[in-house]
Amino acid sequence: MDEKKDIKSMNLKELTEELASLGEKPFRAKQMYQWMHVKLASGFDEMTNLPKSMREACETKYTYTSLETVEVQESKLDGTKKFLFGLADGNVVESVWMQYKHGNSVCISSQVGCRMGCRFCASTLDGLERNLLPSEMLDQIYSIQKLTGERVSNVVVMGTGEPMDNYENLLKFLHILTDENGLNISQRNVTVSTCGIVPRMRQLAEEKLQITLALSLHATTDEKRRKLMPVANRYSIAELMKACEYYFDRTGRRITFEYSLVGGVNDTDEDAAELTALAKPLCCHINLIPVNPIKEREFVQSEASRIQAFKNKLEKNKINVTIRREMGRDIDGACGQLRRKHTDALRTLEETARA
To answer: What is the number of H-type helices and E-type strands within the chain?
Structure first.
């Protein structure tokens, strides 16, 4: 039996061609596309202006991604909400909704788990399970918009997973998300994070999208970066800087450097001077992140005074820098924490049942 096609991952052109093969007119594709990506229908049965026979045919022929809400945590500190969503295969992913003065921002996952092995991140502790489909990335945003009743204006692909390790699905997701026939989120309001897969960074530059590329830098020397991030064994900082330059030249979009400050590891005056030297030649913005401690690792957050001193040093050298506001600190705010807690609990239940 043929595997069902994932209808929510099709762009409008593909959907039009697909439905034409069922004998449907192009306007039907436009109606269905609107149900999926504007009205955010949970299934074919909600698409009331489509013929019942067409909806039934689609039900048998296609899969329709609609995430199940497994858990919601809300911060008492700032109203940040963290969502744990269930996928059709029983896996779970997490997403975060944050309110800012400039609008509502959602941080989504691009993979179930991650294989990058960054030392300060909970997402990677159990390795990579699988890539997310474009529909599964989109539906994190759609589900949050429905659950909160508020429009999402900014999207950050910075949750669990390495987006560049799921490149084709990421690209498809970006095009559907920013399509004028769908949610129509401005490309300039979308940020994609990477730990530094150089060939993919260069490939993304060629797409000439107007999104922001955020590089997880976290160290200023190859030696230090290798201790924190295994990907540094493959690509040197010099190669990364060249790829950042290339991205800016091709797109005109300023790069963001994400820099997690780990107490006593990468937060010294010497680190600040080295970071200045890397940033000076580039059109970039530096986002300092007080690291979220995770119980499986020994890393601690830098002192508040140290973080401020580090920022001051960069600013004195005319580097554009901000300290990321800590959101949802009281609700497993860091990447991968909620999902890990959930999978650990399931594992314990299974072990208890077997005992």
So the answer is: 11, 14
For residues 48 and 329, what is the distance between their CA atoms, to the nearest angstrom? 42
137-152 tens-digit pLDDT: 999 999 999 999 999 9
CA-CA distance, 156 to 176, in Å (whole number)?
Answer: 15
Residue bearing tokens 């858990």:
71
The single residue listed with the structure tokens 């064994």 is 233
Q: Please enumerate in sequence order all residues whose Cβ is within 8 A of that of 294, keeping only pairs 6 or more positions apart, or say none.
A: 120, 121, 122, 334, 337
User: Which residue's entry shows tokens 């109203």?
Assistant: 79
| Contact yes or no for 194/163 (Cβ under 8 A) | yes
Answer positive or negative: Cα dihedral of 286, 106, 216, 137: negative
Question: What amino acid is encoded at 95 in this protein?
Answer: S
pLDDT digits (tens, 9 = 90+) for 296-328: 566 778 888 999 999 999 999 999 999 987 666
* Element (DSSP H or E) covering residue 314: helix 304-316
For residues 106 and 157, what is the distance between their CA atoms, to the nearest angstrom? 8
E strands, 114-254, are 128-131, 154-157, 190-194, 212-216
Q: Give the Cα-Cα-Cα angle 307, 309, 312 (nearest 5 degrees).
A: 110
Euclidean distance between CA atoms 37 and 153, whole angstroms = 15
What's residue 327's pLDDT? 64
Distance CA 132, CA 121 (A): 19
| Band (78; pLDDT cuts 50, 70, 90) | confident
What is the predicted pLDDT for the residue at 340? 62
Query: What angle separates helix 167-177 from helix 134-148, to the nearest 10 degrees?
Result: 40
pTM of the model: 0.90
Q: Which pair of tokens denotes residue 176?
A: 């559907």
Give the orientation angle of helix 304-316 with respect to helix 269-279, to 10 degrees.
40
CA distance 70 to 53: 32
Tokens of 55: 């909806």
Active site residues: 94, 335
